[in-house]
Amino acid sequence: MYRLGMTINFEVRRAEPADAPSMARVHVDTWRETYRGLMSDAVLDDPALLDWRERFWNAALTDPRYEQNTVAVASHEGTLIGIAMSGPSLEGADEPQQLYLLYAYAAFHSSGVGTALLNAVIDPTTPAALWVADPNPRAQAFYRKNGFVADGAVKIENDVRDIRMVRTVNAR
Question: What does each C-alpha distance from 100 to 6, 85, 122, 132 come to in angstroms?
Answer without folding.
Answer: 29, 6, 11, 10
